[in-house]
Amino acid sequence: MRRKAACAPQAAAQIIPKISFSAMSTSYNPQTIAIIGAGKIGEAMIEAMIDARFFKPEQILVSARRSKRIEQLEEAYGVRGVSNKEAAAQADVSVIAVKPQLAGQVLPELAPALGPDKLLISVMAGTTLKQLSDWSGRNCPVIRAMPNTPLRIRKGMTALCGSALAEEHHLGFSQAMFNTAGRTQIMDEKLFDAVTGLSASGPAFIYIMIEALAEGGVKSGIPRNLATELAAQACLGSASMVLETGKHPAMLKDEVTTPAGCTIDGILKLEEGGIRVTLIKAVEEAARRAKELG
């Protein structure tokens, strides 16, 4: 099996723990999983699960619209390519990762192969538990997951909720699976539109901030590549400080802001530009659009 070359980790990179089924509850121990619509997010899940020893390659089935895509995944990871219907029939767990607009077409085709002994997990934005349950026959436990793209480098954030038929062990399994690629939180589905606006869309907002910070560095004489690295590492380090110290961001900001120093002058310009209101409105607008799509 030929695997893709991985980037060399930095010294301070987080070590991904190896997870095995023996460490999980024995009440639910699926042996096969299918990624239906294996695009970038699906591939990231495959790689994370294999690297964490959550599933072996031979336990993973994949389907995609293009046969060439299936061949690429088979060659890269040693998984087995099948059709959508074969995937749902043979797998204990089916992860549906097709485009949301195709869900109403794909899920009814899978419904005959689904049932109380199967688990359906959706990573499609804007598709509700009710829609997923209706389209899949209403007799299968369903988990709705909302990951974000940093999942591709094991730094993702995934929100999870379950249908009425989903039990604690279904949520526990799903949480353990997505933990191989970052962090997870189980929450009420009513928050999912807001989660989409904040967590799923948020990386794009952060990229704009990194780009703008780097431009400020270039304006001040720093070479572009170096300015981008400095800005990105500042964001990474700041985010890690929030998560690892548990301190409120305002407290951490105050630790950087010395009286009559340069930071407070920079903050004043940010406030003049309305950065707080702009970011709040960006999240609010993205959440509104997510609700429309659902």
Describe this structure in words.
With 294 residues, the chain is an alpha/beta fold. It has 2 domains: 21-192, NAD(P)-binding Rossmann-like Domain (Rossmann fold), CATH 3.40.50; 200-293, Orthogonal Bundle (ProC C-terminal domain-like fold), CATH 1.10.3730. The chain has helices at 40-51, 67-77, 84-90, 103-110, 129-135, 168-179, 192-200, 202-219, 224-245, 249-256, 262-272, 275-293; strands at 33-36, 60-63, 80-81, 93-96, 119-122, 142-146, 156-162, 182-186. The protein has an 8-stranded mixed beta sheet, sandwiched between helices. α8 (202-219) packs across α9. The two termini are 40 Å apart. Mean pLDDT is 91; it is low at 4-26. Belongs to the pyrroline-5-carboxylate reductase family. Its EC number is 1.5.1.2. Keywords: Amino-acid biosynthesis, Cytoplasm, NADP, Oxidoreductase, Proline biosynthesis. NADP(+) binds at residues 97-100.
What is the structure about, briefly put?
The protein is an alpha/beta fold. The chain has helices spanning 40-51, 67-77, 84-90, 103-110, 129-135, 168-179, 192-200, 202-219, 224-245, 249-256, 262-272, 275-293; strands at 33-36, 60-63, 80-81, 93-96, 119-122, 142-146, 156-162, 182-186. Strands 3-2-1-4-5-6-7-8 form an eight-stranded mixed β-sheet, with helices on both faces.
